[in-house]
Description:
single chain; flat; mainly alpha; 2 helices
Amino acid sequence: MSGTMTDKGIFFLVLFLALLLVLFIYAVIRVPPELADSQEQPVLDQPEAPPPVPTAPAHQPLPVRRPRTLTPPVAASPVAAPAVPAAAAPAFGGSSNGGYAARHATVAVPVITAPKVSGGPPWGPAPKPPGLE
């Protein structure tokens, strides 16, 4: 795009925005004073009111919250819990991140340890180029 086309595009963009501003100001000035001063919502043709809502049945009492225990609940299925070292896992329901107790889990979550790495790339050093000895 050449510079003159860009200048013309910017000129017409500014001209269009100025025209929109003038139209907006004209529309605000033309509003009748009684509409401009009213604080209430305009009355619209409302459809017929919906039928009354039937009454709800009697509410059941809320369940009683049981105190938190540190022993795991007995699992319903005979699934063996994964072996987790005692030092790596806190007490059941506990967490090492601020004491969050996972109440949604029924068994202990296995701890995934990071793989052991050598600290270097899996390839050896690059061969020296010929002629540099």
